[in-house]
Each structure stands twice: as structure tokens, then as C-alpha cells.
Amino acid sequence: MAPITSNQFSEITFVVKHTYKGLKATTQFVGLFFLSLLLSCNNSEDPESPEEGMNPGNEIVGLEGVALTYRNQCGGCHGQDLGSFVEREWTYGNSLEDVMHSITEGYSNNGMPAYGSTLGTQEIEDLTNFILTEIDGKTKAMLEGDNPDLSGLISSDDLSFRVETLTAEIPGIPWGIEQLPNGEILVTERGGRLFLARNDKQLIEVTGVPDVISQGQGGLLDVLIHPDFENNAFVYLSYSRVNPNNSSERTTAVARARLEGNNLVEVENIFTALPYLNSGHHYGSRLVFDSNGYLYVSVGDRGYRDVYPQELDNYLGKIHRIHDDGQIPSDNPFYNTPGAVNSIFTYGTRNPQGMSLHPETGALWEGEHGPQGGDEINILEAGNNNGWPVISYGINYDGTSFTDLTELNGMEQPVYHWTPSIAPCGMTFVSSDFYGNWKNDLFVGSLKFEYLHRLKMNGNEVVGHETLLEGIGRVRDVQMGRDGYLYIVIEGPGRLIRLVPEQ
């Protein structure tokens, strides 16, 4: 299918591959912009990009000079309100000189590229002064108080609805949600805690979570229950796991456990994405069961753009298909391919933080962060190569290009892409009759612009767009509940909300 939007940035030829042993540090993290500019407690898991691709001409209105530079270069990861700089410990110092040095030289271990060759000295000084001036005197409570009042009736193109807040007390950064058959909702917190939002709106911590390494984009990520949960009580968690033989390395893993009351028991790891790496970003990771009981696991490229996504001998930059106990289906596309990881379902993926089944076709859809531009929505079919990084509609965060190709034989085109990016996180199809004309439309959270993005669908074709809940906060996950309602989890503050149609 031809892409719906176009990219004006790709200019130079891509060097297909570097060998792993010779890979320089600057190449290892080039896929992520501003993961951790200065903070020991990182607040971003996503690429930053200039502006939402639906804006005709990609123009940004009402922003000039240094404010525009901040929005384009920093706001996607650090918040348009500079939220990640407020009430945080500054690992590399917060003086004018410290911040200028950080922007100029970058920090490869934290995933931040150097901007000394892209921005001039005066531009960097102006940007630093802007950041320090804007956050002076601000508190988290002040930022949270700026959230829009969404307590009344909200009108969309096709539906009027209200927002019901189930809890506004989720600590840290919520990441994934999953509704239980009794209506209660499991909520992961990236720092490593799992919560149960009860029907009486109490928030209860669940014990027994596996050991989680919360660093950079890593931590406790997605949560999913088994299709036969009412009989087996199985809960699945994706998380960043430390290498038992090297504490500086970690990777994406999946654990299975039984939920007994407010406790996880019989916890076992059923999937580990090798190799372990000393990298703090691009873990993925979403979990989905299909109608046949296969479990799909999305894994990011960990920032090693040119090494892993196009090779089948590793788990990174891939979507995997496994049985509910971690065993590998013998009909997987590369099961009998010599040297290939036999759990691979598709490959050529950057940082997939959304997956959902189409409610009518049952097809698996995936959403992923591009670099600067090139966020994608893809339909996944067995054995597909989704092209990253050989083809892309994005560019490097410093404005340079890494490929001049947007399509190539043997590589799939996205159903839709955003150029510039919105930083998509979490996605779901509306399958309930409660929502009228929203049914079968795709809803995607935006981290950068803090809204819910509705893609109006006609079959597999995007025919329109709508932004909802603008300014509500960084949307981390969007899920259709088993009760037919649409649930959303947001950071800043950590809230779990439900959209209730006006009857």
C-alpha cells in the first residue's frame, strides 16, 4: 500500500551495515534523540520530531527563535512544558556551562547525540538560557495544574463523551494497562511496580513482580492476561532484564506468573531477547495474543540501528511469535532457516510501542517510533521485512540523513506514517458498539503532543484524522476494555481514565 504522507528530508545514501565489533558509540545510539539529556531519572522513551504531520505544509504557528528550536529539538522527549527538567536530579550539572556542554558534546551512554556540529555556539547558549529560564521556580504540581479541564461534555466529529477518572494517583510513569474479567485493571509503572485499579477506584500494589532494571527507557513495560485467565490466572509482563553474567547489560524479557489476590506467584521468565546490551533505549515492548492463542512480543533495535534489525541471527528490531509458555511454533516463518532466531515473525523494526488486533480481520497491526519523522503504522504478516533502517521516512535528530530510500522491493510500506513525528505510544482499535462511528477506527497515544490521535479507517485505509483530549498529558497506553469501554493511561500526573459516550 502506498504511504499517505511524504518525507522531504531524506538526502544521502545509506550504508547498509557495520560490523558489531567495529561499531562506534555514536552509531550505537543514533536511533534515539534526547533519551536522557541531563537527568538521572529519565522521562522519555520516544523520538522527538518537529511537528505533527497532519499540519498542512508542516508549519509551526506562533513559535519563533529559541522556543521553536526547543520544540523541534527537545520537546518530544523532555516535554513541551519542559516537564522532565522540573524537580529532577541533574546528573551532569545544571549550570549554564554544564548544560551547554551537554548539548554540545552529548552523552553516548545515555543516548543523546552531540549537537555541536548542528547548532552554533550562540544557538546552544540561547537554548540553554531558554531551558533554565523557563523552569525557574516551576514545580511538578504547577505543571500538573496546567492540564485542561476535561470534566464536561466533549464533542468529537462523530461522538460526544465524558472522561471518567478511575485514579489520578499512579506514581512514577505508568506504561501499560490490562483489564481483568471482573473489571479491575492492571497498571504497570516503569520504575518496577505493578498496580491493580479496583472497581472502587482504590489503587493496590501487586507484589511478586520480577526483578526489573529501570534505567533509561527500560523498566516494567507492558502487561497482558492469558485468553483463558479465568481458569489459569496467567499474567504476562514485559520488562528490562539484567544480564545475570554482566550487570551493565540488559534486554527485553517476558515473564509469566499467576495472579493470586494481590500477589504474583510462580513467576518464570519465558522469553529473553538476545543479545544483552549496554544500552538504555528502544526496548519496545508490547504484548498481544491472537485468536489462535499465539503470543506476540515486540522488541526494539536498542539503538543499534545498523547492526540488528535487518539480521535474523538476533532478537532485536523484531516482532516475535511464541506459545503461551514460551515455546516456539513450528510454523513460524524462519523456524527452519539456518542461523535464524526461530521466534521471529517480522523484522526491520525500530521501536515498536503499539500493537493491536484488527477487530474484524484479526490481522496484527503495529505502531512504532521513527527517528525525526517516520513514525509508522504497519500490518504485520509472517516473514515480512518492514524495512528499518534501509527504508525510512525519517532523518537523524541532527538533521542529517541516513538513507535516501523510502521504498524498496521486498520491504513493506507502512499503512500510515507521520512526518514529522507525534511519538506514538500505545494503540488500539475500537471494537465496541458503544462508540458509534468510532467503531473499527484506530486510536494512538501521542507522547510528544499529549493527545489521543484517532485515525478514521475504511478497511485498511486511513481516510481521516482527529485529535482528542489535547494537552491531557503524555499518553502511554490505549486499550479496549473487556467491558466495551476505551481506557487510557497518562503520565503527568499518572492517571487512568475511561471514555464514556453520552447516551
What characteristics describe this protein?
single chain; 503 residues; mainly beta; Cytochrome Bc1 Complex, Chain D, domain 2; Neuraminidase; 2 domains; five-stranded antiparallel sheet; four-stranded antiparallel sheet; 7 helices; 10% helix; 32% strand; disordered N terminus
Low-confidence stretches: 1-63
Overall pLDDT: 84
Overall geometric form: globular
First-last Cα distance:
38 Å
Question: Helical content, roughly?
Answer: 10-25%
Largest sheet: 5 strands, antiparallel
Strand line-up of the largest beta sheet = 1-2-25-24-23
CATH class of the largest domain: Mainly Beta
CATH superfamily of the largest domain: TolB, C-terminal domain
Which architecture of the largest domain per CATH? Answer: 6 Propeller
Number of strands: 25
Rg over alpha carbons: 21 Å
Q: How much strand? A: 25-35%
Stated plainly, the CATH topology of the largest domain is called Neuraminidase
What is the number of helical segments per DSSP (H or I, 4+ residues)? 7
Describe the protein's architecture and organization.
The protein is mainly β. It has 2 domains: 25-139, Orthogonal Bundle (Cytochrome Bc1 Complex, Chain D, domain 2), CATH 1.10.760; 144-501, 6 Propeller (Neuraminidase), CATH 2.120.10. The protein has 7 helices and 25 strands. The chain has helices at 25-28, 65-73, 75-78, 96-105, 121-135, 140-145, 229-232; strands at 154-155, 160-170, 174-179, 185-189, 193-197, 203-206, 220-225, 234-243, 246-260, 263-272, 287-289, 295-299, 318-322, 344-347, 351-357, 364-369, 375-380, 416-418, 424-429, 442-446, 451-458, 461-468, 474-480, 486-491, 494-501. Strands 1-2-25-24-23 form a 5-stranded antiparallel beta sheet, with no helix packed on it. β16 and β17 (375-380) form a beta hairpin. The longest helix has 15 residues, at 121-135. The radius of gyration is 21 Å and the shape is globular. Mean pLDDT is 84; it is low at 1-63.
